Amino acid sequence: MGHDRSLAVGEESVEILHPHWKTLVGPIALTFLVVAALLAGEVLIPSGTWQAIARLVLGGVAIVLLVWWLMVPFLVWRTTVYEVTTRRMRIRDGIITRNGRDIPLSRITDVSFRKGILDRLLGCGTLVVESAGEHGELTLTEIPRVERVSALLFQLVEDERLRESRAQPDQDDDRPDRRRRS
């Protein structure tokens, strides 16, 4: 596997996630309804001179509905990516226009999650990340294995804080009022 050029030097990808598959259950159910309606319409179209045109119109409407109700949600699901690296949390989404948001781990102040009954059964939930800055709280819904992701993110935030504290020299000794007197 090659190095991702969008990562900084020394940065490594730790976890890459898409929203949970349950986001596609509704569109798939609508797909079955559209196909059932299409088949029922094909059977109920009376024979005659307009039968071919009616079938074409019905098929065209079914294709448009399938693209709108299945393909668009699938593409949104597929192009939405949550990535946790050793230095930041990256969010990318968009089918035609790409949107991105990066939150440095050093700016994250709190990580929490919520899981409802259905979320507990399916193994997903809502991840809430609070960061210092003007955007404040970020809520990510339908995160698979949300408890594990929350724990991982918390650990990476703590590792980043330790790394930064080791990288900074002790600045208290440089102040004139804190110098040792001999």
Describe the structure.
The protein has about 180 residues and is α+β, with helices and mostly antiparallel strands. The chain has helices spanning about 25-45, 50-80, 115-120, 145-165, and strands at about 15, 80-85, 90-95, 100-105, 110-115, 125-130, 135-145. Strands 1-2-3-4 form a 4-stranded antiparallel beta sheet. Strand 6 (about 125-130) and strand 7 form a beta hairpin. The model is unreliable at about 180 (pLDDT under 50).
Average pLDDT reading: 87
Describe the global form. elongated
How large is the share of residues in beta strands?
Answer: 15-25%
Strand order of the largest sheet: 1-2-3-4
Low-confidence region ranges: 178-182
Q: What's the helical proportion of residues?
A: 40-55%
SSE order, one letter for each helix or strand: EHHEEEEHEEH
Number of distinct helices: 4
Quickly give the structural class: alpha+beta
**Biggest β-sheet strands, sense, barrel:** 4 strands, antiparallel
E-strand count: 7
Radius of gyration, in Å, reads 26 Å
First-to-last CA distance: 58 Å
